[in-house]
């Protein structure tokens, strides 16, 4: 979770009146049980629980001039940044970390599926030859050092993997054999059996896995992306998979997204595409409700909320 | 692992000369590094490392009258029992427990795949709606209390599941919320989100999951079979999946096996079939080599080998 932007939150003070837009009863319950008052969207709104699409938020902000804090529904916030939202004095909290568990679980599901050629098997209509690699003892490279990466490391711990984490700033990551910065990524690709993309999308990480990076991966390696589709050069990924320069891929995010009908990725060998469902609406509602309850309790007491967006970083 | 049949192993004494049939250099190395002597199949053979099919073993035994111990290559031994092998004074060791890790890993891969509708997604050629359940906190029912079950429980520990283990005899199983005998199975089916079959095939477990058992499972439940195909009534399973009375299935073993071309299971919704590849030959060679080295070291020293088959139980 990013550090608090100190200037904004120190002037935030207690926030007591919250609006939920669009209305979701589970979130109204979360506000109420944490001591917040639920009000209609309007001049009384001090805190806004926003679970609509990024496009609709600007209109709501025009109608809520007193708003000082906004809870966003997603962990990734690049679309809000692109729309210029973070340039105001309003404090934004993302859902960073709230969905770490189901997303890390999905990353593990895709990892095992790709290693064991389950996409190819799901399409088979006849008994076949043995294929597959076991995850035990493999070398895993994770790009991203946030909550999803931490939980993924927790889930793969029983497999005794040697895990390298690539993150913006070096820091201790429990379960990682080493933590390196992006500068050292290229030198680590050649010895990766599993590459997991769990980074935020920024100017530094856009297409971080390009044709050169894919060439550097061993042909037996598999790629898992539960971050953002634009972390990968999709055209280069298709070419690598078709040429057998990569053993398989599990993608919960794509570029473009949704992936268009007829796109070659739909039929690339040993590739599994899930429609951004690592965390489904049902999973999200429970976990976002818990996050809202936590943040509202903090704000009512005049304490800073968690997972505030750093305007300079954009996440 | 089953208890030693005491009568047979107490008279076994040191075993020093081993034959490997068919010849596998990795297994000859394992015998040699544990202090055993590798000899041609014949009158000098005291211990036999057998990795052929069950059918060929009888012929080899005729040519090895001095054999006192046989290492079998599989954890399941029902085909050797059916052939009457266990009626002699020869001590048999199965590979029970040796492949627990990759098989438990495969069971987890199939569990996550079925819960998250990955078989359906692998067949899709278009973006789709969100579907899927998260494994965190679900209720898992495991039939079988051996090494695979133990390792599966180890792998799912981070998910905080409530696990019930069904086994022949009650015993403490680390990580299980409760351990019950087969008599109580039926009463536990109604509250299972995930049903994992990891039992040996015996007269007691054949078709242990029949039409009545499948009806008892919740419609949201998924079934994973990494034991033996005959643990399940396949016709009833197809019917349950087609009727939506079961959310999905992951099957590494089938009945018949290999599953015949055109069998309805190939196209049953959200069903993933892998061709008995939970442990591939490459994975097996490493792990069986370790088991052979362990057993040969024990036998040379006059100690009992591990995973001996109890003739009365047949596994």
Blueprint of the fold:
The structure is a homodimer of 315-residue chains.
Chain A: H1 6-10, E1 17-21, H2 25-33, E2 37-38, E3 47-50, H3 54-62, E4 69-71, H4 78-82, E5 91-93, H5 100-115, H6 118-123, E6 139-143, H7 147-156, E7 162-166, E8 178-180, H8 185-189, E9 194-197, H9 211-216, E10 222-225, H10 234-242, E11 248-251, E12 271-273, H11 281-300
Parallel strand pairs in A: 1-2, 1-3, 3-4, 4-5, 6-7, 6-9, 7-8, 9-10, 10-11, 11-12
Helix pairs in contact in A: 2-11, 5-7
Order of helices and strands of chain A: HEHEEHEHEHHEHEEHEHEHEEH
Q: Helix tally of chain A?
A: 11
Global shape of chain A:
elongated
Please report the two chains with the greatest interface, counting residues with C-beta closer than 8 angstroms to the partner's C-beta. A-B, 45 and 45 residues
Distance between the termini of chain A: 9 Å
Give a short account of the largest sheet of chain A: 7 strands, parallel
Q: Rg of chain A from C-alpha positions? A: 21 Å
Helix amount of chain A: 25-40%
Global structural class of chain A: alpha/beta
Mean pLDDT of chain A: 94
Give the oligomeric state. homodimer
Number of strands of chain A: 12
Can you list the strand order of the major beta sheet of chain A? Answer: 8-7-6-9-10-11-12
Q: What fraction strand of chain A?
A: 5-15%
Low-confidence stretches of chain A: 1-7
């Amino acid at each position: 979770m990013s550090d608090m932007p100190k200037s904004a939150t120190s002037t935030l003070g207690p926030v007591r009146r919250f609006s939920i837009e669009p209305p979701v009863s589970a979130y109204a319950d979360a506000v109420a049980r944490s001591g917040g008052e639920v009000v209609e969207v309007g001049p009384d709104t001090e805190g806004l629980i926003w679970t609509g699409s990024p496009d609709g938020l600007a209109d709501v902000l025009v109608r809520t001039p007193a708003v000082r804090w906004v809870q966003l529904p997603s962990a990734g916030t690049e679309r809000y940044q692109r729309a210029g939202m973070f340039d105001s004095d309003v404090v934004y909290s993302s859902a960073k970390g709230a969905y770490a568990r189901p997303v890390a679980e999905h990353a593990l599901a895709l990892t095992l599926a790709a290693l064991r050629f389950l996409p190819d098997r799901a399409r088979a209509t006849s008994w076949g030859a043995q294929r597959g690699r076991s995850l035990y003892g493999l070398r895993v490279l994770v790009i991203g050092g946030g909550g999803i990466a931490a939980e993924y490391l927790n889930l793969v711990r029983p497999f005794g993997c040697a895990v390298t984490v690539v993150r913006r700033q070096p820091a201790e990551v429990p379960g990682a054999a080493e933590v390196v910065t992006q500068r050292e990524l290229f030198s680590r690709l050649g010895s990766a059996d599993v590459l997991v993309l769990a980074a935020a999308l920024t100017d530094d990480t856009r297409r971080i896995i390009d044709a050169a990076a894919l060439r550097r991966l061993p042909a037996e390696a598999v790629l898992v992306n539960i971050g953002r589709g634009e972390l990968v050069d999709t055209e280069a990924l298709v070419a690598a998979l078709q040429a057998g320069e990569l053993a398989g891929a599990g993608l919960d995010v794509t570029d473009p997204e949704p992936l268009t009908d007829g796109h070659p990725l739909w039929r690339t060998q040993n590739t599994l595409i899930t429609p951004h469902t690592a965390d489904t609406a049902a999973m999200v509602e429970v976990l976002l409700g818990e996050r809202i309850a936590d943040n509202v309790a903090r704000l009512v007491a005049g304490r800073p909320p968690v997972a505030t967006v750093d305007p300079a970083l954009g996440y």
